[in-house]
Amino acid sequence: MRETRETIAKKVAWISVISNIILTLGKIIIGRYGNSDAVFADGIHSAADVFASVIVLLVIKISDKPADKEHPYGHGKAEVIVSEIIGFLLLLVSIYVAYEGISGFFQKVESPSFLAMWVALFSFITKIILYRSSLKVAKQNHSKAIEAIAFDHKADIVASIAAAIGVLLSIVGERFDIHFLLYGDKAASIFVAYLIFKIAKEMLTEAFDILLERNIDGVIIQEYMTIISEFPEVKRIDRIRAREHGHYVLVDLRISIDHFKTIKQGHDLAKSIKGKLMENNDNIREVLIHLNPYFPEDK
Q1: Whole-angstrom Cα distance, residue 267 to residue 7?
Q2: What pLDDT score does 247 carry?
Q3: Contact 6/64 with Cβ under 8 angstroms?
């Protein structure tokens, strides 16, 4: 399973690397020589995607390593750290793009070429395909690293169409002598910067929550509790906690059972609960169960 997951993750990352290299070169060259700040900014973002994909290729093998003496909970957080790095990188990119766009309002404005618009549209279509396929694989394999790649593609989807619209507005402004429309490309580049910033903020927030071991979504916790409650021997669920550890989840559980149960009976029950939880949730890697004695007067 781990080898399959690693192979799939590498395949997604390599597809992302190759496609983003092509898009990066096309958008940066056409954006610069086609006089489009928006397309150029989109190209800078694609360059960040290349870097992100390369990091994933380097770290995916580490995150799939089994637990060892030094890392008893596994190496899953390696992917979370990668997601944090990518998010920070996108934050820097958004600041750079916003600066370039704003400074463009104080310089002489020239209309971009039509070629810049077609490049942006081609990027838009390509990114839709890459985003949907990457997100599907990320969910199937519970991979934060692949999910980070998918979010990068998502940012490019809106960014590319925004760049195309900005270029078109600038061209229309020049053709029909509507001066304020000439700034459409500059405005689009600032909008692209905002989109990149938004994605970066989401990635940084999620990664930060996981690193601080925030409890997973309450709806999922409730699903776990429903499964546990199916066991009649469980008199009370005293506490349940679960945290993401990269692409897998660790669950801590405290339950009360009749005080006269033997250690063997308690052990067998805990084993059954753990098996049922993992059977219904293939992303659960470990379930630690503590048993408390239950007395009828505790009701």
Answers
A1: 37
A2: 62
A3: yes
